[in-house]
Amino acid sequence: MRFRLLAAGLTAGLVTLAAPAAEAFCGFYVGKADTSLFNEASQVVMVRDGERTVLTMSNDYKGELTDFALVVPVPTVLKREQLHVGERKYVERLDAYSAPRLVEYFDEDPCTPPRRVYEKRAPAAPSAAGAPMDMARSKSLGVTVEAQYTVGEYDILILSAKESEGLETWLRESGYKIPPKASKALAPYVKQDMKFFVAKVNLKEQKATGFKYLRPLQMAYESKKFMLPIRLGMANATGPQDLVVYALTRQGRVESTNYRTVKVPSDMDIPVFVKGEFNKFYPALFEKAHEREEKRAIFTEYVWDMGWCDPCAADPLNPEELRNLGVFWLDEQNPNGRGGGSQVVLTRMHARYDGEHFPEDLVFQATNDRQNFQARYVLRHAFKGELKCEAGKQYLTNLDTRHQKEAEALANLTGWDLGTITQKMGDDAPGKKAGKESDSWYKKLWK
Fold first, then answer.
1. Cα angle 215, 219, 221; round to 5
2. What pLDDT score was predicted for residue 183?
3. pLDDT at 157 over 90
4. CB 274 within 8 A of CB 353
5. Residues 94-106: pLDDT tens digits?
6. What is the pTM of this model?
7. Contacts of 139 (CB under 8 A, 6+ apart)
8. Residue 397 — left, alpha, or beta (φ > 0 → left; ψ -120 to 50 → alpha)?
9. Which of 155, 151, 157, 159 has its CA nearest to residue 218?
10. Rounded distance between C-alpha atoms, residue 400 and residue 393, angstroms
11. Do 1 and 66 touch, CB atoms closer than 8 A?
């Protein structure tokens, strides 16, 4: 069971707490690594401009709806109008658009004179939790119910608390299933005088929606803090948790201010057999990069102006989709900025965190950097035709070197065994030259 949200995986329970190197980003898109490749990956969308934030918490809770409970620290008491139930499809669109991807190229016949290709690039277009206890008992525990609403299929309370033990007791006595010793996780937020957004499922309203799943919760608020509370989600975590943050600003790239933010290794040539093993390749690459950064870094997987993409794993989100995610500043006259930069820059960040390596909540800042970046891995197919010209012979000589570099790059990225990689490369492996006679190995032996 899980409802991995708010930056953290607030989990169920408390929360459910020799080719040219520079070819720009052109190429033929062939595959992507979305969040489904990672077990129990949380997804959070943060729209930020100035001190205004719209937060979308993607819900993939699995389990009895009567067991569902969500507790999220928030900076202020939220009004009913600041809460909304969104649609999962918009988060899925962001994931598809920004996912790490494979692209492939096919070598041309080196014996054919090169031809110029001109490209015109266009923008792509009865519940388990009981009713709140009486006011006298709440007061004795130092808990105040600041507000309560039913929003879609959720019953929501906004709480304040004087001390964390009282809040833990209040939640338990009100029927919320939270992990043991939750007060330790709640304490830092109580000390900061933060409020607590508490949600459970209204079974009658859930049935009326017709949905088989719980939809994302959205909240809009103003705060000087651009942050996500992840410590609360570690209260009942059994191990490291994956979190993907999609940050949308009109300023530029988003980065963490209290953890290293590094770009995931990208733009490498790798063997073509990876096309059939991308679901193994990217998780292995991420794990290796995570270890190299001593498990303390946040990885940037994508930064792009939302007006276009190249190559596109999915079309950029249109103005309606962006508004549904909370982008509130879109210019009605030129919503996609076509013919120039758009008003929305997407940053996709991926963190794998635990209490030992991520002792603090995630704090972010928007920068003025609008330089595009994507996690992109290149497959280059060798030319398989007959090669009799001098340029063809040189191509075959260079091909072995290229394949060796691809194999070494893959081993370095993933930690996979180099011998196994070479074996999987098959006919394209180093030493097996495309288009060359089987006995050609000895022809240059004594030259």
1. 175
2. 83
3. yes
4. no
5. 999 999 999 999 9
6. 0.83
7. none
8. alpha
9. 151
10. 12
11. no
Q: How far apart are CA 380 and CA 23, in angstroms?
A: 12
Beta-carbon count within 10 A of 44 CB: 24
Q: Is the dihedral of CA 203, 205, 207, 209 positive or negative?
A: negative
Question: What are 71's strand-pairing partners?
Answer: 198
Assigned token pair, 372: 């595009």
Domain extents for the chain? 28-379, 382-442
